[in-house]
Amino acid sequence: MITFLVLVNTRSGGQDGPHLLQRFSEVIGAGEVLGEVVNLTEPTETGVVGPRPILLKHSTTQDVRIIVCGGDGTVGWVLSELEKIDWVHGAPPVAIIPMGTGNDLSRSFYWGGRYKDKPVKKVLYDVTEADVGELDRWSIEFSANPDGERHPRAIDRIPSQNSVFNNYFSLGIDAHIALQFHNARNANQDKFTSRTRNLLFYGLEGGKDLLVQKWRHLMEDVVVHCTLKDGQVVDITKTLKDYGAHSILFLNIKNYSGGTRPWKQRTGYVASQNDGLIEVIALDNIDLALLHIGGTGVFVCQAKEVVLSTTKAVPMQVDGEPMLVNPCSIKILHHNTVNILNRKKTTYPYRDPEVDEWAARKIQSSFKQYKRQKTGLSSPHTEGGPDDGAP
Fold it and tell me: Which of 318, 323, 284 is nearest to 151 (CA)?
């Protein structure tokens, strides 16, 4: 029988985190459902609870499935702790309930791009029926370059907690915009409380750069060498410079920046998140602006190892965590492979009042949306009041 470990980051997703914590606590560990529910960010004398204690507790338990409720950063946190534990029956697979801004890892394994208020029993059924997939993880080896042009607000090395990535590593204009957002949110947290508002900020900053082109000379200060699948080492610096790359993206999964697909399929090359290869993609500022309406970057190569160096402070981001980094050399290497659950489309086979009520609300909402579209009404407030049709 499956033991469910539900790890909730209550600081993610506004009020969704505490809501999920309560709902799972009502089901998990009660009756026939085995498992535990943990608030990862519950304060302790030394910080927060985190995932390690509950993972250690169940390191000898058979047939464990982990459900992480949070953003991609929370998933990465859990995966990093998973690898530190000696699992008697093998490391358990992970499912995701997305509560971050981008949720690209969740999208890549078909758990969706945002939290939907599904019945807990339906979620547990989906987790039970999910297939076990694999995800490559990549490590970043860092060394400082003391001879380059330093910046007073830049950091001298990538923090250790960002030394492994699951989704992507990038440098250039996309990291610059992410850093602008990070700084603005830290200065005005009350103005960045919704996912929609966060994405709007990214769109506006990207639009500004169409005029400013702040990182159009990125490749004047960056050199990139890639080791290909056959072991050949190639210098792709000129290719990137000739294209006019404003950003270089090293992509491990299908999705990037809130569900976009910057990888453009090329004959003879197949992108996979568990092939020991990382996709190297060039983006200029126009590519970046068009990603959310179906645009793509330019395929450069697939690499099993990357070495890059910078001669001035350059913005970088590791799985969406932005930073301005002083001149350095970076080596990207395959770190390990972990088990992630691939969600399948399933129909809940049992009668349950909560599931029946949820299905009825979804059908009603879909019908009312269809009716509004057919009558030319665009606002849900036009009929039935402000809560009409809410799922």
Answer: 323
The rounded distance, in Å, linking the Cα atoms of 25 and 37 is 6
Q: What does pTM read for this prediction?
A: 0.84
pLDDT, tens digit, for every residue of 155-189?
999 999 999 999 999 999 999 988 887 777 666 76
Cα–Cα distances in Å, from 309 out to 190, 248, 326, 358?
38, 13, 11, 53
Which of 275, 201, 287 lies closest to 240, judged by CA? 287
DSSP bridge partners of 281: 249, 299
b or e along 336-358 (b: 16 or more beta carbons within 10 Å of the residue's beta carbon)? eebbbbebeeeebeeeeeebeeb
The answer to whether 114 touches 103, Cβ cutoff 8 Å, is: yes
Rg (CA), the chain: 22
pLDDT (0 to 100) of residue 15:
74
Residue 6: both structure tokens together: 């539900």
**64 in Cβ contact with 161 (< 8 Å):** no
The stretch 278-299 carries a mean pLDDT of 90
Helix (H) or strand (E) holding 122: helix 120-129
Between 179 and 341, the higher pLDDT residue: 341
Q: Rounded to 5 degrees, what angle do the CA atoms 18, 20, 25 make?
A: 100
* Neighbour count for residue 275 (Cβ, 10 Å): 15
How many whole angstroms separate alpha carbon 308 and alpha carbon 172? 13
What span, in angstroms and rounded, lies between the C-alpha atoms of 245 and 237?
A: 10
Q: Is the pLDDT of residue 391 over 60?
A: no
- What is residue 292's predicted lDDT score, i.e. its pLDDT? 80
Instruction: Report the distance separating Cα 367 and Cα 107, nearest Å.
Output: 26
Tell me the C-alpha to C-alpha distance, in Å, between residue 158 and each of 76, 180, 214, 280, 288. Answer: 16, 18, 23, 20, 24
Angstrom distance (rounded) from CA 26 to CA 137: 34
> What are the residue ranges of helices labelled H in 281-320?
285-290
CA distance 6 to 68: 6
Nearest to 139 by CA among 178, 169, 174, 94: 169
For 345, the token pair is 């489309």
